[in-house]
Amino acid sequence: MSTQLPHLLSQNTRSMELMMSHLDHLEAEAIHILREAVAESENPVLLFSAGKDSTVLAHLVMRAFYPSPPPMPLLHIDSTWEFQSLLDFRDRFASQYGFRLIVRANEAGRASGINPFDHGDRYTTIMRTEPLKAALDEGRFDVIIGGARRDEERSRAKERIVSIRGTNHTWDPRNQRPELWNLYNLKLNKGETARVFPISNWTELDVLSYALVRNIELAPLYFAQQRPTVERDGTLIVVDEAERMRLRKSESVVERSVRFRTLGCWPVTGAIESDATDVAGVLVETLSSARSERQGRIGDQEAGGSLEQQKREGYF
Length: 316
Hints:
The protein is of the alpha/beta class. The protein has 2 domains: 5-209, HUPs (Rossmann fold, 3-Layer(aba) Sandwich); 219-306, no CATH class. It contains 9 helices and 10 strands. The chain has helices at 5-40, 52-65, 84-97, 107-111, 116-139, 204-213, 279-287, 298-303, 306-312, and strands spanning 44-47, 74-77, 101-104, 143-145, 162-165, 193-196, 225-232, 235-238, 254-259, 270-273. The chain has a 6-stranded mixed beta sheet. Strand 7 and strand 8 form a beta hairpin. The radius of gyration is 20 Å and the shape is globular.
């Protein structure tokens, strides 16, 4: 065994060097895109869900413009059905790193009881899309930076790194600008805005690997711990607010060790059973998983191709 050790160490060192070279390339590309976007923008904003992608993206913003303070605020759209620990992480993150945090919610929708149990796509439109468009109009933001990745979902794979949005923030996937030789056209006509996705070429594994090597803190929901769950149609739902949960007759709440790969509104986001309590453990489990990242989004599964329609109407 001792004679094999130098060879194994050499192999591991080479693998780490290749990983770092790959991540360095992705980091440099994202920083280039961020600097281009801010240079061409009059009033940029960063969409911040407090999920792993937007958290990594916010760290890239800090690296891109260090030692200056972040040149844009964070904008969070609160659907009113967010995980409480995610909201706590959001507030702590913004305070720790000097971002101005803007939070918007559809208070009329909240008052009228719009919810993910009863209203499906209408809930997404009223509680996410409408307040997002209202916040962008109110802030007069022209370049909206987000953490979407092409590998997440097929409608996002149709989108360019710079995605021009028309009047009322609508998107036409057939009307997109070429991006040859990594040249990005951010010139806007009257009534247009741009959605910019600097980590579009990253994968889920890239994001997790970058968080590991850069020692980036992610929201606690990405790591396994005992949580109250309900098994519904083959999916584990974490009961974040017992008083708002709609239990079916055959359902009961069971404590399980679970975590999330993707985050959304808690009643429609599936957890997975896991023992991974740190980023390294999550990486190992993700490498061996045969399931896609967004299979945890129950709304995606039920609504089929509705995400693209929501994007056409102005959704993130």
